[in-house]
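step 3/5: co-fold with S-adenosylmethionine
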Amino acid sequence: MTERTIAAVLAMALPRLAAADIPDARREARLILALALGVDQAVILGHPERPVPDAVFDRFDKLVTRRAGHEPFSRLLGKREFWSLDFALSADTLDPRPDSETLIEAVLAEYPDRTAPLRIVDYGTGSGCLLLTLLSELPQATGLGIDLSVGAVETARRNAESLGLSGRASFCQGDWSQETQGPADVIVSNPPYIPSEEIARLAPEVAHFEPRLALDGGEDGLDAYRKLIPVAKERLSPLGIVFFEIGAGQTEDVTHLLTESGFRLKSVRRDLAGIERCLVATV
Ligand SMILES: C[S@@+](CC[C@H](N)C(=O)[O-])C[C@H]1O[C@@H](n2cnc3c(N)ncnc32)[C@H](O)[C@@H]1O
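step 4/5: write C-alpha cells
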C-alpha cells in the first residue's frame, strides 16, 4: 500500500467533515489526526510530509466517521477542560460548558477567604466539574456530589481521584431529595433546564450525544428547580448560599421559585456572552 502523508490524509477527511456541516472542518480534521497520531497539533501543522502509518489511518478514519456523525470532539477525546482542569467524560455525563464557570466565579466572589472550611453540596454533579473545581480552589473545603445517574457518579469519583481530591469529595447516587449528611454552607447546582420539546431542535452534538437526563427540564424547563429549591432550603446552613445555573431567559421564573420558598435573591451573574447564567440566593 502507498504511504499516506499527513497532508494527504487531511485532504481526504476535509470534504467528509465539510459535507456533514461540521464548522471549521479544517481545524477539526487536524485535531482528530493529532488525536489519532498521539501528537500535538503543531506536528500536524509543521510536518505535512510525514507519513501516517496504516493503523493510525484506520483509527483516524473511524474518528472522522464519528465526528461526521456529529459526535463532539470532546467525546472522541474522552475529556474536557473546565477551569483549566481535565475532566473525563462518559456517556452518562454532560460535557461541561464554559458557561458553567460562571458558578465557580460566583462562589469564589462570595468566599474571598480561600481557607474557609466550607461544606459544599453539588446537586446533579455529572462529571463532578463544579464540586471538584471548587474543592481545588478552596483547599479546606469538603463536598458531596449527588446525581441520579450511576454512571455519572462513577465518572465523578474517577475525576476526583485523578485530580487528587478524593479525600475531600464524596459522591452518591440519588435524586434531588437525597440526604446530605448535615447542613451545607454552599449549594451549587446546574440542573437540567431545557424544555423537553426544545431538545430535538438543539444541535445534533447536544441532542444526540448529551444524556437526556442532563438536559430535560420538563415541559417548561423548570421541573428540577421546583423540586430542588425547597430541598435546598432545608439542607442549607443558616448563613449558607445557593448558586443555581439557569438557562437563557429563566431569571424571572427561577427567582420566583426561590422567593416562594423563602430565599432572597442576592445577585445575578452573567456568562461571557452577557447572558444571565447564575442566581445567587440566601435565606
Ligand atoms: C446539566 S447536567 C450538569 C452536570 C454538571 N454539574 C455540569 O455542570 O457539567 C445535570 C445533571 O443532573 C442530573 N440529574 C438529572 N435529574 C436528576 C435528579 N432527579 N436527581 C439528581 N440528579 C439529576 C443529570 O444526571 C446530570 O448529571
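step 5/5: annotate
The pocket of S-adenosylmethionine is lined by residues 94, 96, 100, 124-127, 129-130, 146-149, 152, 175-176, 190-192, 213-214 (CB under 6 Å).
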